[in-house]
Structures are given as C-alpha cells and as structure tokens.
Automatic annotation (TrEMBL):
It comes from Mytilus edulis (Blue mussel). This is Endonuclease/exonuclease/phosphatase domain-containing protein. InterPro entries: Endo/exonu/phosph_ase_sf. It comes from the Eukaryota. SUPFAM superfamilies: DNase I-like.
Length: 231
C-alpha cells in the first residue's frame, strides 16, 4: 500500500481578520504557498508567510531539492519588502550540528541542536538560509524544543519555522510538541494511526498604530500577539 504525501494548506482563525485582510501572494510553485496579511491600521506591519513541503529524498514522488530551495530563495527576494517574512513547513532536511548563520559575520545566538544527523537536503537548507539571512526559530526562541517527527524509523527534526535575523526579537516564543504528549494532555483521539509529525506554535508581537484605533487615543501604543501554528 502506497503512503500518502504531504501538501500545504493555510487555516486562519476569524479573530485575525479583525485586524488583517488576507490574500495569496503566490502559488505558482507546487508545495510552496505565499500569503499576505495586510494590516488594516498600519501597512508597515504587514506579514508575509509561506508554507512549504519538500518530499523526502528517495521518495516515489518526483522532487528536486536544489530547484525547491532555488525557487524559495527567489521568492524570498521578491516578497521580503512586502512585510515581515515567516516561512514554515516540512522540508525533510536534517542539518545535524551545522549552524544556520555565518559565524563571525552574523550577530545572532546559536540554536539548541537536538538532531545530530544530517542529509543532503540539510546542506541545501543551510545554503538557502545563509544566502538570504534567514534563521531557524526551532531551538532559538524561548519555548519547548523537541523533535518534530517521531515514527518507527526514529526521531528527527525536519519541520521548521524560519525568520529574518532582524525579526528574532518579534518572536516571543516557539514551541514544538510531540503528538504523544498532546494526546496525554488534551485527550485527543485518532481513529487510525497517530500522525508522525507534531505541531510547531510560535507567537509574534505585532505593533499596532494607535492613530487608527480610537479606543486607545491618548494611550501608549500596544502590541497584539498573533499565534501561528505550523503542522
């Protein structure tokens, strides 16, 4: 029996639409979907987020890791001025102990590494990140760091969230959850097998302009927290 493969989809909770309008920026490349959240009160606080999927090496589904990351790199260059950029997804790339920035040049803190194994896609991912000054939130932002995929074949980190270096201080937390823990904590019930991949939840602070919010006239600017969940 053939296994199904992943894809990409975006779900947005209603309350986000109170402050943002949503549009699709680009969906021309299979398994890479760019979306834009346009702030209704301050267009300097727009958010561009991308969800993506790269099938594993050696899968029966045709895939080209080099083309995937080249396409993604060109899209980052295209949309980096449209708003704050975040990328999340399952890219089946294991980076081992390689750092995701240029040491001695980039001024960011090291990430906590829990998956010490690497593969070819991991090398391509590191090249992609250092080429466009993005870095992983996994193991770097405050929060729970863990493996993202647990199966009979072992444990690995293949799901990530990426952000530009200068946006790290906007991310207040990034939590990775094992589904086995969520089942115990929440009582989730799966009719068939338990999925291999767990969710990643990261929280971003977005500053709103009080000039467009009459309920806060005369008060200091405040910050909205937006929670993202990447599965």
């Amino acid at each position: 029996m053939k296994r199904g493969f992943g894809g990409v989809v975006v779900l947005i909770i209603d309350e986000v639409l109170d402050d943002f309008s949503v549009s699709i920026l680009e969906s021309s490349v299979e398994d890479i979907l760019w979306n834009k959240l346009s702030n209704k009160y301050d267009d300097s606080n727009n958010i561009c987020f991308c969800v993506c999927y790269l099938p594993p090496e050696g899968s029966s589904r045709l895939n080209d890791g080099e083309k995937f990351y080249n396409d993604l790199l060109q899209q980052v260059y295209c949309y980096q001025n449209e708003g704050f950029v975040y990328i999340g997804g399952d890219v089946n790339s294991r980076c081992g102990s390689e750092q995701d920035y240029i040491q001695g040049v980039d001024d960011i803190n090291d990430r906590e590494i829990i998956d010490v194994f690497s593969n070819k896609y991991g090398d391509l991912l590191i090249d992609f990140l250092t080429s466009c000054n993005l870095c992983m939130l996994n193991g770097r932002s405050d929060g729970n760091n863990d493996f993202t995929c647990v199966s009979k074949r072992g444990r690995s980190v293949v799901d990530y969230v990426f952000a530009p270096h200068e946006q790290l201080d906007m991310c207040t937390s990034c939590d990775l959850y094992l589904l086995s823990d969520l089942i115990v904590d929440t009582g989730l019930n799966f009719e068939k097998s338990i999925p291999d991949h767990g969710p990643i939840v990261w929280i971003v602070n977005v500053k709103k302009d009080i000039a467009y919010d009459t309920s806060n006239i005369g008060q200091s600017p405040y910050t909205d927290q937006i929670k993202w969940q990447n599965k």
